[in-house]
Amino acid sequence: MKIVPYPHPALRSKSDVVKIIDQEIHALAAGMLELMYERDGLGLAAPQVASGQRLIVMNFAGDHDQKDKEYVAINPVIVEAKGTVEDREGCLSFPGLYAKVRRHKTVRVQAYNLKGELYEMTCAELAARVWQHEIDHLDGVLFIDKLGMLGRMATKKSIEEFQKDFKKSLDKGEYPPGTAPKL
Fold it and tell me: Is the pTM of this model over 0.85?
């Protein structure tokens, strides 16, 4: 399992609802958590590992030792959002790229855990930003899509570099045929 970089087409695909929480889903979540920690991330969505499942993993502290801050969210939805705030954001599929993104300040979310139990959480600031960022991934929406005109201009060169690097990876056969994105 590896994190796919932009512009891999899996990042633009809408995820399928998880209907059965089986060993495959448990293994996917475990692998994603491990990968998220390896890359010092706060969250990771299944499309980022080229899986079409509607699943995200998060640890708002980004610390493997703080299991109480770790969440697996299956079929998550935002049921309420309030306020707005702009802050710096990055993504594991865009290593080294950061930009200011406007998000809701507070969100109330619902999701299922690995036991199939529905849970609800209200959070603000960083935790709310992580939820929104990762749920966006499940719908094929990337943080660069949320940038204003100045943000797009400031990141244009970096985005072009990601595209060139991905094309080189395709040419080397690092991804299967038919993986080329539609730009």
Answer: yes
